[in-house]
Structures are given as structure tokens and as C-alpha cells.
Write a structure and sequence with these properties.
alpha+beta, Beta-Lactamase, 2 domains, 6-stranded antiparallel β-sheet, 63% helix
Length: 274
Amino acid sequence: MATDEEKGVSGRAEEFLQLFKKGAEFTQELLKENELLRYRLVQLEQRLRTHDASEAQPEQSRKLSERIAELENEKQRILEHMASVERENQDFATRYVEIEAENNNLANLYIASFQLHSTLDFREVLQIIIEIIINLIGAEEFAILLLDDKTQDLTAVATEGVAREDIPPVKLGKGVVGQVAETGDSHFAADVSAYQRNFLDPMACIPLKIKEHTIGVIAIYKLLIQKKEFAPVDYELFTLLAGHAATAIFSSRMYSESERKLSTIQGFIELLTK
């Protein structure tokens, strides 16, 4: 079932589409009127050219000239108005495309967040996050690093495009990755096109936060070949994804730990009751 926000976006998109259609119909009407005026103007010009100057009355010639000038001015006004309508139509079309893209992104994010919270298996959660980063963000090489509260080390638990053992552990507060984990602020390279892969200084680094507590980071080292830079919507996706991913990771880890403890307790009980 669509949310109120999705209905609102769809409604705005429909309004823009209706305005675009009305603008197109109005433009067609203007074109027809302009064609009629052009035809009348040609008729008048032909009449002037074929009119015998010696027999023509000066007053009639003057009126015809004035009428031609009026038609020329009217034609110019219509052309200017048509250009203005065309610009408005272009603005409506551009905005409609933007709304469609936003609507698609919202739908994709809704599906992604639903998938994240559909399982409590830690490995499945990591795999879902990887698929989201590839499909929604357009990243080719990246890593998910989680913080060990005891050692204060950030260690890669999942990677894409690079080997997990190639990602060095990072101390909290050290380098770009450590600083992002410590401050909770995202980092983005100033020039994506000139970026050279550096595991300690990624192209983009997004904290995985539950409220104000950071449990890890997503480090991106390379985008897909068809993606040249981050789009404005990507930053919103990063923010929303980081919160959902952090919650899903934390919940699945807690569940896994409780399952292990429960299995251990059940083992002790079985030993004691034998």
C-alpha cells in the first residue's frame, strides 16, 4: 500500500503532467492561429503587388499598408508568446522527469529498507546492504567496516570488488575512516573523477549510526563506470541507508549472540539433566 508521502509525490507528478498536456494543446492552437494570420498576410501582399498603382486610391493603399504592419506586429507577439509557452513546457517536462526519478528512488529505498528488516541473519543483512549499495548508489568497490568496542578497531566484515583481507584494520580516530567513525560525519572526496583508490582515505565514507552511536562505516573506493559522480539524491540515500543498515546490523548481531548464548545454556542443561 502506498504511503501518504508516495501518494503526495504521485499526485504532484500527475498535476505536472496535466499542466504539460494543457500547455501542448495551447501551443497547437497558437500554431493554427499563426498559420491563419500568415495566410491572410500573404493574400494582402499579393493584392498589393497586383494592384495597379495608377488606378489605386492612395487612401486604400495606406490602409492596406497599415493593416500589414498590424499583422506583422501581431505575428511577432504570437511568436514571442509561443516561445514563452515553449519554455514553460520545457520547465514542466524537466520537473516531471525529476519527480519521476524522486518517486522511483523513494520506492527503491522503501523496498531496500523492507529487505533490510526482513531477516535477522547477520550474513543475509550484509548481503542485502551490498546489493543496495551496488544498485542504488552505483558503487563498484567498497567495504563495510564494523567497530569493535573492546579494541576500538574498525574491521572489514564484507567487501565488494576488493578482497576483505586487503582492507587494513583502522583505529578509531585514525585517518579518514577512523575520523568518520569517531565524529559520525560523512566524508566525500572533493573531485570524484581524480580520486585514486586509498583504503585509508576512501572516495566516500558514511557512518553507520544508531542515534548518536556509530557502530561502523561504509567506505566506497570506486563507482560503476557509467556513474561519473554522486547525484544530489545519493546524499539523501546515504543518510537514510546508513540509519537503516546500522539498525539491521545491530539487531542481527544481537540476535546471533543471543542464539549462541541460548544454544550454550541448552547444552549445559542437557549435560546436567543426563
